[in-house]
Design brief:
The structure is a single chain. This protein is α+β, with helices and mostly antiparallel strands. It contains 8 helices and 10 strands.
Length: 322
């Protein structure tokens, strides 16, 4: 059998196993005071006092106290030298005063006759008069209290708020958009020119050499270049719809950046929605991108926000809110 390492506690002077002592932070050593004595000191001092090094240590002792109990269900009482010096007299516990009920007039007993003294005996009529006067005073006091007390207002039933569905939110949004008169603030036109280059637009020149994809490249508004591979069919459609030009049989180039392409479509349609005829400042794909549509001048039109939201990804959308 492996002998258990024991260590005397500096507070209660009792030898205990090492597991009864807390570990020091940052080292493998154990503290000198056992957990039981530290819990006792915790009861006598609040967290953050001189008895603990930190508030975290006091919290750790409380957690350990909930998980572990002493072997005999008791804890060792101890008082260290420091505690004896700093000990202050405990304040006396204030006893709660009991309010005695007032005894009624009729319950008063007739005083007995002592030696050499005559007892003052009340007659039956006097007692009845006193009882009637006391009842009258009590009733009048209750009446005044009822008049002074405010009448509680009737409890209002709390209305239960139901969460609106997504369709209801869209409906309310459409109503708000239709209710507000949209003022046509048309920005001035800007010259949008395609990217210059030795491009050709004959799709018969494209050749993927059996790979099934064509290289597409372009550049952003910042001038940074990018490139990616797209299927051959998509490359042919981009050239046919005026979104790209052919550099060589295996490479095509986009003609417009995102910002220029948006302005190109809006200026071409004069900022008029294709579906309702009102002012529009958004771009809608006639053939939705989810169904294979491309961001090309031939597939994009100007639309207002309400029609763009209502159309979504429909193919047979017709504006009929007249």
């Amino acid at each position: 059998m492996i002998a258990m390492e024991m260590k005397p506690c500096t507070a209660c002077r009792i030898e205990k196993p090492l597991t009864a002592f807390t570990k020091r932070a940052g080292s493998s050593g154990r503290r000198g005071i056992c957990r039981t004595c530290l819990r006792k000191r915790k009861r006598q001092t609040a967290p953050g006092d001189a008895a603990f090094d930190s508030v975290e240590e006091a919290v750790r002792f409380l957690e350990y106290e909930q998980e572990h109990e002493d072997e005999h269900g008791e804890e060792h009482e101890f008082v260290t030298d420091a505690d004896a010096e700093n000990e202050t007299p405990a304040k006396p516990v204030r006893k709660r005063k009991r309010r005695r009920k007032k005894r009624s007039v009729g319950s008063k007993l007739i005083a007995p006759v002592h030696d050499g003294q005559a007892a003052s005996v009340a007659t039956a009529s006097d007692c009845e008069q006193k009882d009637a006067a006391a009842v009258q005073r009590q009733s009048s006091a209750m009446a005044t209290a009822d008049e002074a007390a405010p009448v509680p207002a009737a409890k209002r039933k709390r209305k239960r708020r139901h969460k609106r569905s997504k369709a209801a939110k869209i409906k309310s949004l459409k109503a708000e958009i239709s209710a507000v008169e949209q003022v046509a603030v048309r920005p001035p036109n800007r010259n949008i020119n395609p990217i210059k280059g030795a491009f050709t637009y004959k799709t018969s020149l494209l050749n993927d050499r059996g790979r099934g994809h064509i290289r597409l490249r372009g550049h952003r508004e910042t001038g940074k270049r990018w490139s990616t591979d797209i299927p051959t069919e998509m490359a042919v459609r981009m050239v046919e719809e005026g979104a790209a030009g052919i550099i060589n049989p295996g490479l095509i180039h986009k003609l417009y950046t995102k910002t220029d392409f948006r302005l190109l479509v809006l200026q071409r349609d004069d900022y008029i929605c294709k579906y309702c005829g009102r002012y529009g400042d958004t771009i809608d794909h006639v053939l939705p991108k989810s169904k294979g549509g491309l961001s090309s001048p031939a597939n994009c039109v100007c639309a207002c926000a309400a029609c763009n939201l209502k159309k979504a990804d429909k193919l047979d959308f017709v504006f009929d809110d007249f």
